[in-house]
Design a protein that fits this description.
- The protein has about 650 residues and is of the alpha+beta class.
- It has 15 helices and 26 strands.
- Strands 14, 15, 18, 19, 20, 21 and 22 form a seven-stranded antiparallel beta sheet that branches. The chain has a five-stranded antiparallel beta sheet with strand order 1-26-25-3-2.
- Strand 12 and strand 13 form a beta hairpin.
- It starts with a helix and ends with a helix.
- The mean pLDDT is about 90.
């Protein structure tokens, strides 16, 4: 019993872990969330897929076998005990009971038998009367003996629940994998190319698989995620996604989503058209189809690509499709573009103190740029400018691995909330001819008529702009540290920054004139735009790519995520749970009582005895109450 309770406790703890820890996720998700050490520990203990772990299934199997044997051995005895009245109890044994009393009476035996029968019936006892050889009459009564069914129900419930767990634990696959007949597929290949040893047939006993269908497409296979790979589950029918719909709250958060699907099967006279939504699955051939999630199904994206290495070139348009690839450049500079994700809605809290309300900031897209050697960086960019610290910025994040956090680049939006102002300013400050013209214009604005001083200032300003063009603030800092005494560096840095801002403002006006735009007013907003632009130009040195993808438009194509489940053990678990409730209720709330009344006419005595399978305070109280009632009954009759 102690061992069985220990095993049940272990299963309970494992079930709690399986509820709290998200099960059967891709291994990279666990590594990112918990780190390599805890991932390896959880994987070794089988906690990443508790309900299919070998030790979990072995415990279930042991409990099924051992508890079944226990029920087979003890249930017949309990049923027999439940049926008997024990009317053959002797006077000697009754007087040895802990709860017994002798009641005096002068009534005849027949009258006593009638009174006691009526009393026991009122108290809901079932009883049997036996005439003994010496003339005594024994009334054997029982109440609440159904409690013994609680033991049978409780232990049978454990068997039924564990059996249901074994059915859903997919033991056949475990055995086939152990024998080498089945292997987990880890390659990223088409489902049609997956070999038979990594496929599960349509008659597979139980599974929990996932299917992602873009609108207008169909499939007859699903994927079962197993450890660091997957298995292909063949289905006995085909599922097509006719339409996907999603509703949003005013903030842009998803409110509800549903899918119109069409099920085709050679056994059907016509296809089945139905709608599934969250918590409202559709079941066909024992396979429940749940609406689990949604994602992009291959949206068409239109970008304006800015070549950050160019000094006098506008951006050009390129197209991309989510989950597909493209290429940029050629030779050693060739890069592969992987369009990974597109999200139409993004709910963010952009308030400075974090106390504001989250709201929808519009679409964003995620892509990877992979160089010729295979190294990749991931970029995530928002389509619309975000309001940060009271100003509008085009925001793009970069990270080198999925374990890293995104590092964000802020590009200030111009007065028209476009990125053009920054890009043209940057191109102007990278053009050698423009740099010379900027330095000349700023030098002419110097007071005084000293031509030699103005020429020297013009040369210094050109050198400053070229230095910033080559390395940003880091290069300026390096030059200051190498050429300026330590006690004068801070003052020199402030001077350089003022000159740089003045030159950048002149370059901004030049870039606007080149686009036939009027000069920008020299207001605080323009000054902040220039300062933010210089900061963004400096950050671009760490952006890691010579390209900036500006999302301009898109054609949305949704894909619906389904979970397909065949769970034959589910009904067994439900049935076992009902039995468990009934069994526990019987064991705790039904009180078993056995009562004997031995009528001894010759001695004018009635011997009262009472017993229970549990000796507790309730038994003491019940015995005292029955003794008092019978005493009062005998006195009233006298």
């Amino acid at each position: 019993m102690r061992f069985a309770v220990s095993l049940l406790t272990l299963l309970g703890v494992a079930s709690i872990i399986g509820t709290v820890l998200k099960q059967n996720e891709p291994y990279t998700n666990y590594i990112v969330k918990f780190g390599q050490f805890w991932f390896e520990l959880f994987e070794m203990l089988g906690l990443l897929d508790v309900y299919h772990a070998a030790w979990f299934l072995l415990i279930l199997l042991f409990l099924v076998v051992s508890t079944t044997l226990c029920v087979i051995r003890n249930a017949p005895l309990m049923v027999k005990e439940w049926q008997v009245y024990k009317e053959h109890a002797t006077e000697k044994s009754l007087r040895l009971f802990g709860h017994q009393a002798s009641l005096a009476t002068v009534q005849p035996a027949a009258a006593l038998q009638t009174q006691f029968s009526e009393f026991l019936s009122i108290e809901r006892y079932r009883f049997k009367t036996r005439q003994q050889d010496n003339g005594d009459i024994l009334i054997a009564a029982k109440l609440g003996t159904h409690q013994r069914l609680g033991y049978i129900f409780t232990h049978a419930a454990i068997v039924v629940i564990c059996f249901g767990g074994l059915l859903d634990g997919n033991l056949p696959f475990k055995v086939q994998e152990l024998l080498g007949w089945k292997k987990i597929e880890t390659r990223d290949i088409s489902s049609r190319k997956v070999p038979a040893e990594s496929r599960l047939g349509v008659n597979n006993l139980s599974f929990r698989a996932n299917m992602t269908l873009p609108e207008g497409e169909h499939d007859n296979v699903a994927f079962v995620r197993v450890r660091d790979g997957y298995l292909v589950q063949d289905l006995p029918f085909t599922v097509a996604l006719k339409d996907f719909r999603i509703e949003h709250y005013a903030t842009g958060m998803p409110k509800s989503f549903e899918s119109d699907i069409v099920i085709t099967d050679p056994e059907l006279s016509k296809p089945i058209e139905t709608t599934i939504r969250v918590n409202h699955p559709y079941t066909y051939k024992g396979i429940a189809i749940y609406q689990s999630d949604f994602q992009d199904g291959g949206s068409e994206l239109k970008f304006k690509l800015w070549d950050l290495a160019a000094s006098n070139q506008d951006g050009f348009n390129i197209d991309g499709v989510v989950s597909q690839k493209g290429s940029l450049g050629d030779g050693a500079q060739k890069m592969t573009v992987e369009f990974n994700e597109f999200r139409q809605f993004n709910i963010l809290n952009l308030s400075a103190d974090g106390k504001g309300k989250p709201h929808n900031v519009g679409p964003n897209t995620t892509l990877k740029l992979r160089n010729a050697s295979g190294q990749a960086r991931e970029y995530m960019s928002y389509m619309q400018p975000l309001q940060l610290d009271g100003r509008a910025y085009f925001v793009s994040g970069m990270r080198e691995t999925v374990q890293d956090e995104f590092k964000y680049l802020r590009i200030p939006a111009d007065a028209e909330l476009e990125i053009n102002g920054f890009m043209h300013l940057r191109q102007t400050l990278r053009n050698e001819q423009a740099i010379r013209e900027i330095a000349s214009q700023v030098a002419k604005q110097m007071p005084g008529d000293n031509a030699a001083l103005k020429a020297q200032f013009e040369q210094s300003l050109q050198h400053l702009l070229v230095t910033f063009k080559q390395g940003g603030y880091s290069e300026l800092s390096r030059i200051i540290e190498s050429a300026v005494p330590k006690d004068q560096r801070e003052q020199a840095a402030q001077t350089y920054l003022k000159l740089l801002n003045r030159a950048a403002l002149q370059g901004y006006q030049m870039s606007r004139a080149q686009r036939q735009l009027p000069p920008a007013p020299e207001t605080q907003e323009t000054v902040m735009f220039i300062q933010d632009s210089l900061n963004a130009m400096n950050d671009l040195f760490f952006y890691g790519t010579p390209y900036y993808f500006q999302l301009k438009n898109y054609t949305l194509k949704q894909a619906s995520g389904f979970q397909l489940t065949r769970s034959p053990g589910q009904n067994w678990v439900y049935f076992g749970s009902v039995m468990l409730v009934l069994g526990i209720f019987s064991m705790f709330y039904i009180k078993e009582r056995r009562l004997w009344l031995l009528i001894k006419p010759a001695q004018q005595e009635v011997l009262l005895a009472m017993s229970s399978n549990r000796k507790n305070m309730d038994l003491d109280q019940d015995f005292a109450r029955v003794q008092q009632q019978l005493t009062a009954l005998l006195q009233a009759a006298a």
